[in-house]
Amino acid sequence: VIAAEDQRFYEHSGFDLAEMAAAWASELPEGSERRRGASTLSQQLAKMLYVGDERSAARKVRELLYAVELDRTLGKARVLNLYLAIAPWGDGVCGAAAAARHYLHKRVDTLTPTEAAWLASLLRAPDRDVARFERSGEIDVERVRWVIAHLRPLNAERRDALLDAVPMWSPRKSEW
């Protein structure tokens, strides 16, 4: 999940100024879809717990302030634990453990790296990606490969083997 959503999770204090600047620089003209987000896991948790989905500058500032306070008072381990417990994974599923059970019929602690990367890849747009899989049986191979490419620490040989295997991997359709 850190590889998929917030690669510098352990390096910031609740917000990632570099990602915010990059997201701002990549904004498209009015009415176009954003190319990238900049919310940290702490900000996403603050959004889920406190500030909601309203699209406004004031909401974003509140989210940022809550994120800094969450990191300061709870610490990274607890923030990550809470995020993993309540994050939406599509199809009405919330939390990593529930997602592993629902989609893969496994306990989260028994997931393979590829299974974990696929579940983490769903967090970007869970309802869209789950609907795509249900409709076509295809996973977003490039997104799963992107997540695996950002796993740390992982030696090059292991990373290459995981990346090579992704195009052949798929959750079993019979389990859906």
In short:
By secondary structure, the protein is an all-alpha fold.
Write a structural description:
Helices cover 58% and strands 0% of the residues. The protein starts with a helix and ends in an 11-residue tail after the last helix. The protein has 10 helices and no strands. α3 (41-51) packs across α5 and α7 (113-122) packs across α9 (141-149). The model has no long low-confidence stretch (mean pLDDT 88). With 176 residues, the chain is an all-alpha fold.
Q: Report the helical percentage.
A: 55-70%
The overall strand count is 0
For the residues shown, what is the average pLDDT? 88
Number of helices: 10
Overall geometry: globular
- What is the structural class? mainly alpha
Main pleated sheet: none
Rg estimate, integer Å:
17 Å
Distance between the termini: 22 Å
Outline the secondary-structure elements.
Layout: H1 2-5, H2 17-25, H3 41-51, H4 57-74, H5 76-86, H6 96-104, H7 113-122, H8 126-136, H9 141-149, H10 156-165
Helix pairs in contact: 3-4, 3-5, 4-5, 7-9
For the structure shown, list the relevant keywords.
58% helix
